[in-house]
Amino acid sequence: MFFSCARVVECLGILNGAQLFSLSKDELRTACGDEGSHVFNQISVQKAQIERSLGDSELQEIMRRRQQELDESTWE
After folding, report:
1. What's the sign of the alpha-carbon dihedral 32, 34, 37, 43?
2. Do 21 and 47 touch, CB atoms closer than 8 A?
């Protein structure tokens, strides 16, 4: 297992987050061998969590702005 992790780090350590998130399962299998599918699953989980947290933040910001607009319009 340690060897596999070292190989994954060696193969993917030069990439930034956007590059990692853009890789397909097949590309990861090519780069990482048997560990590619596992790495793809882990990256997918992390990507989903980030998208979910950013989505919540964007929604909260939209709701805050709408409330602010409503509050300002009631004073006019």
Report:
1. negative
2. yes
